[in-house]
From TrEMBL:
<feature type="transmembrane region" description="Helical">
    <location>
        <begin position="344"/>
        <end position="372"/>
    </location>
</feature>
<feature type="transmembrane region" description="Helical">
    <location>
        <begin position="64"/>
        <end position="87"/>
    </location>
</feature>
<dbReference type="GO" id="GO:0015293">
    <property type="term" value="F:symporter activity"/>
</dbReference>
<dbReference type="InterPro" id="IPR011701">
    <property type="entry name" value="MFS"/>
</dbReference>
<dbReference type="InterPro" id="IPR005829">
    <property type="entry name" value="Sugar_transporter_CS"/>
</dbReference>
<feature type="transmembrane region" description="Helical">
    <location>
        <begin position="412"/>
        <end position="431"/>
    </location>
</feature>
<feature type="transmembrane region" description="Helical">
    <location>
        <begin position="199"/>
        <end position="218"/>
    </location>
</feature>
<feature type="transmembrane region" description="Helical">
    <location>
        <begin position="123"/>
        <end position="142"/>
    </location>
</feature>
<feature type="transmembrane region" description="Helical">
    <location>
        <begin position="319"/>
        <end position="338"/>
    </location>
</feature>
<feature type="transmembrane region" description="Helical">
    <location>
        <begin position="288"/>
        <end position="307"/>
    </location>
</feature>
<comment type="function">
    <text>May be a proton symporter involved in the uptake of osmolytes such as proline and glycine betaine.</text>
</comment>
<keyword id="KW-1003">Cell membrane</keyword>
<keyword id="KW-0812">Transmembrane</keyword>
<dbReference type="Pfam" id="PF07690">
    <property type="entry name" value="MFS_1"/>
</dbReference>
<feature type="transmembrane region" description="Helical">
    <location>
        <begin position="25"/>
        <end position="44"/>
    </location>
</feature>
<feature type="domain" description="Major facilitator superfamily (MFS) profile">
    <location>
        <begin position="26"/>
        <end position="435"/>
    </location>
</feature>
<dbReference type="InterPro" id="IPR036259">
    <property type="entry name" value="MFS_trans_sf"/>
</dbReference>
Amino acid sequence: MENNLSQSLDFSLPRKTLKKDSVKTVILASMVGTMIEFYDFYAYGTASAAYFPRVFFPEVTPTIALLLSLLTFGVAFIARPLGSFVFGHYGDKMGRKKTLVISLLLMGCSTVLIGLLPGYNTLGLTAVVLLCLCRFVQGIGLGGEWSGAALVATENAPANKRALYGAFPELGAPLGFFLSNGLFVVLEFTLSPSQMESFGWRIPFLASAVLVVVGFWVREKMQETPLFRMAKQRSATTKSPLVEVFKSNWLEIVQGTFIVAVTYTLFYTLATWSLSYATTTLGFSKQAYLMMLMGTVVIFALLILFASRISDAFGRKRVLLFSAVALVIFGLVFPYLLTGHHNVWGALTFLGVGFALMGIAFGPLGAVLPELFPTKVRYSGSGIAYNLAAIVGAAFAPTIAAWLAANWGIHSVGLYLSLMAVLCVVSLLTMHETKEVDFTK
């Protein structure tokens, strides 16, 4: 496999310049950051849905407390485009490695600090302000994470396996989800509800420090990607990546934003909103529903790999169009699955089908977004599109879904998801197939 990798990256550069990381290092370095990203965000999503309403908003009604808590969830998403501007600029100018190490540390330290924050009963509104500040800084760090990880994978990949290699950072999503969810399940079975509210919710945030140390160690060992080194040798980089990308590739930014946005809406509908809805309306306990989420996320991981391999064979556009059209239908149908009291089979079908479509929609993105942009603005372009998608698709998705369900019924949540899928379909129809692009330019 590594010999094939070496042959595919023969750019007629000196042997010293062509020295590459091992496949194992590429996998770990690209996967670890996305794993931490989704671990951190799902830990926050779970805490904001289940614990933060009472920890940080105890003096308002439960419904308002939930909405306010979920609004703090969106703060990091608003900060992410700012992070993509900053880290994209330096990633295209100075290189992928240094930028990724800094973004990882900023993201990880902010997450740990959330676990140390006092609640409303100790600091009042100051506690809420500090929570939002930590989320904002976390979002800046996250703004440079996914795009850099995707470039580490795809810029080290054989041309005919770019989507497969691009799936490495995507696999970090179910892994991070599984680790976060698993830890919450263990804590829910070990601690009492009062203990979870008092200190148990802090443990997943503090535990993320271990992942950050591992991620830092892996990324310190890796070297710069071959394509960026080639661009530097050819003087093909630019001093103003942000100016260049908005001038020459603004359409690709718009297309990439709406192609990715529906995956965010789907993920946080499945993982955050449905947890709140299932435990408050459908009669599930937190432990039971978290276990169901853990079981069905395996489908998510398997479909990421499957969809990536298929897109290497048949093209990215076909696979993504299939998932987007299927999501339009899923949005119209899933509300019928979440009816009745403690409807286990309905909930399992909702989660299983939802995570299967999530895997198909998410898998090829690790290749598609980088392929939309030339090397000199690839970090900036893919990062801006990915993080604008986080605002459009995720920043307020749990809050919107909770408000829609409370005021217009669960079918309106399905229509919301279908609308996001329609926007994805339109973007894909205007996009050219990227499978055969010359990735060295």
